[in-house]
Write a structure and sequence with these properties.
A: alpha/beta, Transcription Regulator spoIIAA, 3 domains, B: alpha+beta, Alpha-Beta Plaits, about 25% helix, binds iron/sulfur cluster
């Protein structure tokens, strides 16, 4: 047990001291001095969120299997501790050894959502590491970013020494080997970075020259040296059977958001929804072997003692061995008090049957994500869910005793009209009508339909990356249209409507498709106190608007400006598998409202086939 | 079948609150394959209850939880299985069968004892002898020690003489420390720090929240006249 970096006085004053002491079940303990490489793995949000992230658990386990690496964890100190650490100049420490992060070889930060960008600066700041990569001396850790937001790392590029593009399982061995060689030979930081940039999937921002045209758009993006690749290729695990998976995941003392065993059944998604970045960047879809999953389920329940297991993937219903896996879990674990949770399941006869077995129907609700209200709009975004399918699923569920329905939609999609927005309310009403078709004596009271809308943020490497956004006021106007339409429905009393913040959406839009110039605004916002922006109680839009104004970064340039089909995007240097030609094709089809079949129905030649596996080759061997 | 488990909580685990300690043991039961009984219904939970919640910041070598099991291994094997499932800072010390009609630990707890040692930098300039005399004068001599106790809603006058069963000065690693045996349970729960707060007042000193490190030794049932006995003594070893 390491002596805490923080004193009793501090730990007994702040909220949830257990966030900062480590010592959790299945934590890896090594002698820090015996490791050639000390790696601090960071999720830049509060402990309970960060500990719930599967990707970190996978890398933590994988790194620590190596004898020469000691991987430890770091999360964002909550504002109460942040203040104390700043005042007392306490350097941020890793949980395992409780030693300062600034003495590590690497600080790896997983970047899952844009609103954590100020938390990244907090991590660097509290670690006493210079915010800008170019200011870091030879003895500072190499700061490395990974995760979905690195598919456009440019707004935060200057804060990182390098980014890892793609799934972490592949190139770290090469990076570590290079690092050890360089350390042994006393190679300078700059030279190490230059060599690292030649490893597949590694992007070193300082090795590229960026110029902008008079219109403010990106004009060129070129390597500074001949040995630096012009394109950075995303890394993917193609052998899912031999990929490492943590059979002994960490179990926190305090309740994490994900307080259960998470079993990842596949990566990627066959569906091709045009707004969904995950559905594009994790192509091709790769399934895991069901026998191996059964083994993992058993081992992980045993090693953690969790009372719940959840299947994880972008679209679990598309996992071809789902029925077998779910039946195995129910047969083997359900009567041992293990809950089985099945998020993102399509509502059909099978899932209703399973849910009826593992959940309390009266308490649980059905979830549909039609994403758009009208069929026309759903065709634009290539969401294959039709009204008939929804009504059929809801009908079966209602007959089976369910009465709560949650519906998720997006507003602000390209080509959206008032009718499309109103159709959201109408769809909810149709579902209610279907409920009240059930004879009174067979249903129990009213149905409850909850509509939630978020505002659409165009993401890099999606067909909708060319879409323009709206102003915050325009977004709220859209929510108002839906709200009015709900009030006009016959079954309005059974329908509840809530919508997301519009201000956050606009900022997400800037960060998602921003370039290197946006960094100044992020840094200024942090200096002005922005932190935990993903938490509505800490988000302060005024502060952000000031930060943008003071740094001369124009929000509307990134959100409202129409983008030409051949515009050079800040993220075009990444080869994400899907080709720009495919995305352009899909964007045109979106504008025309033409749907594209999913990968299992018909391959549409997205480019991911060259990874040589997954769904692209299903049934071919 | 009812089983009482005794465990200790030390080191950094003192920062784990009571509810999280409960969650920790629920998962530990599953890891150790204890054949614990579950309640019926849609979300079954383990039949488990704790004796006397330990505050955050306090270490202990005498914590108890009662469970209901369908079947069980011996004390020795069960203790070993549970210890295999523990993290550093939690140790299972005993595992004993209770009579079927035994009341839950929580309902019979009457007393607990503690040692409070000085945290570095908070020591006071009084010798062992001076402190012993002061404790004698503060605690042993008076017939009554009436104090005002603040509760969430109201304040009431209580008599510490009735609720503090032992109070003495010890020498731990060359420094003075205090031993206290105080009333514990749902009624008349006395925190040892409360007694020292009033003792400090008597000395004309202010007690800081961080002056002492508190360590609990054991939890007892019984009463002052007939005697207290450890919750551990009520169970029998399973062979
Ligand atoms: S190449 Fe075809 S099958 Fe493979 S991911 Fe792309 S669209 Fe799907």
């Amino acid at each position: 047990m390491s002596r805490p970096a923080l004193s009793d006085e501090i730990l007994l004053t702040i909220d949830q001291p257990a966030r900062y002491i480590g010592g959790e079940l299945n934590m890896v303990e090594k002698d820090p001095a015996s490791a050639d490489i000390r790696f601090a793995m960071c999720f830049p949000d509060v402990y309970e969120i960060g500990m719930s992230h599967l990707g970190i658990q996978i890398l933590y386990d994988m790194f620590n299997r190596r004898e020469d690496v000691y991987c430890e964890r770091v999360y964002s100190p909550w504002p109460d501790l942040h203040k104390i650490m700043k005042e007392q100049h306490i350097p941020l420490f890793a949980l395992e050894s409780q030693q300062p992060v600034k003495n590590f070889d690497f600080l790896g930060i997983t970047i899952q959502y844009e609103m954590c960008y100020t938390n990244i600066l907090q991590i660097l700041d509290l670690s006493q590491i210079p915010l800008h990569a170019e200011e870091r001396g030879e003895d500072m850790p190499i700061v490395i970013g990974g995760g979905p937001c690195t598919y456009n790392p440019e707004p935060i590029a200057e804060f990182f020494d390098l980014f890892y593009i793609g799934e972490g399982e592949i190139s770290y061995d090469a990076l570590f080997a290079l690092y050890k060689r360089c350390k042994r030979d006393g190679v300078k930081r700059e030279d190490f970075l230059r060599r690292a940039a030649q490893i597949p999937g590694i992007y070193v921002p300082s090795m590229y020259e960026v110029t902008y045209g008079s219109d403010g758009c990106l004009k060129s993006f070129t390597p500074k040296y001949e040995d630096i690749p012009a394109k950075v290729e995303k890394q993917l695990v193609m052998d899912m059977d031999d990929a490492p998976y943590p059979s002994k995941p960490l179990v926190p003392f305090i309740k994490a958001t994900q307080d259960r065993v998470v079993l990842e059944v596949q990566r990627g998604c066959i569906r091709g929804c045009r707004f969904c970045q995950a559905g594009m960047i994790y192509r091709p879809t790769r399934e895991k072997n069901v026998e191996q999953l059964k083994k993992y389920a058993y081992e992980m329940l045993k090693s953690t003692g969790h009372e719940e297991i959840s299947l994880s993937s972008l679209s679990t219903s598309d996992y071809s061995q789902l029925e077998e896996l779910v039946n195995f879990l129910i047969d083997n674990f359900h009567d041992k008090g293990v809950n089985i949770s099945l998020p993102s399941l399509r509502i059909d006869a099978f899932s209703l049957d399973v849910m009826g077995k593992v959940q309390d129907i009266k308490k649980s609700s059905l979830t549909f994500a039609p994403e758009a209200g009208s069929q026309r709009m759903r065709d634009v975004i290539n969401k294959g869910l039709t009204k008939d399918i929804i009504l059929e699923g809801a009908g079966q569920a209602f007959e089976g005793g369910w009465q709560k329905v949650k519906l998720y939609f997006m507003l602000g999609l390209p080509t959206e009209t008032t009718e499309d927005m109103q159709a959201i309310a109408e769809l909810a009403n149709d579902i209610a009508v279907r409920y009240y078709e059930i004879p009174k004596e067979k249903r129990n009271g009213k149905c409850q339909i909850t509509i939630s809308t978020s505002f659409f943020v165009p993401k890099p490497f999606t067909p909708l990356q060319w879409a323009t956004m709206c102003t915050a006021d325009e977004y709220l106007g859209k929510a108002k249209v839906v709200n009015e339409a709900v009030k006009n429905q016959l079954n309005r009393k059974s329908i509840r409507y809530n919508w997301h913040e519009a201000d956050v959406t606009v900022l997400e839009g800037v960060f998602a498709r921003g370039d290197r110039r946006v960094a100044a605004a992020i840094e200024r916002a942090y200096e002005k106190g922005a932190l935990f922006d993903a938490w509505s109680e800490y988000f302060d839009n005024e502060r952000w608007l000031e930060a943008f104004a003071e740094t001369g970064v124009d929000i509307s340039f990134y959100t409202l400006r129409p983008r030409e089909l051949d515009e050079l995007f800040p993220w075009d240097f990444i080869d994400a598998g899907v080709t720009k030609e495919f995305l352009q094709r899909e964007w045109k089809r979106a504008c025309d409202g033409v749907v594209t079949p999913n990968c299992r129905m018909n391959c549409s030649g997205c480019g991911a086939r060259r990874y040589g596996g997954g769904v692209c080759f299903e049934g071919q061997n | 079948m009812k089983v009482r488990i005794k465990f200790s909580k030390s080191g950094n685990m003192k920062f784990i609150g009571h509810l999280d300690t409960m969650r920790y043991f629920q998962k530990a039961m599953r890891r150790a394959d204890i054949d614990i009984a579950y309640s019926t219904g849609f979300s079954p939970h383990q039949i488990m209850s704790f004796a006397a919640p330990l505050g955050v910041g306090i270490t202990s070598e005498g914590e108890y939880l009662d469970i209901e099991v369908n079947s069980t291994d011996s004390t020795e094997k069960s203790v070993a299985a549970l210890n295999d499932a523990m993290v550093k800072g939690f140790s299972v010390l005993d595992y004993r069968r209770l009579p079927d009609n035994a009341k839950t630990a929580m309902s019979i707890v009457t007393c607990a004892d503690y040692t409070l040692t000085y945290r570095e930098g908070y020591e006071i300039d009084r010798s062992l002898e001076e402190l012993r005399e002061a404790v004698h004068a503060f605690y042993e001599v008076p017939e009554k020690i009436e104090i005002v106790k603040q509760t969430k809603k109201s304040e009431k006058i209580i008599d510490l003489k009735q609720l503090v069963y032992d109070f003495k000065v010890l020498e731990v690693e060359g420094k003075p420390a205090f031993y206290l045996k105080v009333s514990t349970g749902s009624t008349d729960n006395i925190k040892p720090e409360l007694v020292l707060e009033h003792f400090y007042k008597y000395l004309g000193l202010d007690l800081n929240d961080f002056t002492f490190r508190t360590h609990r030794h054991d939890v007892y049932t019984g009463n002052a006249t007939e005697g207290f006995y450890s919750l551990n003594d009520m169970g029998e070893i399973i062979r």
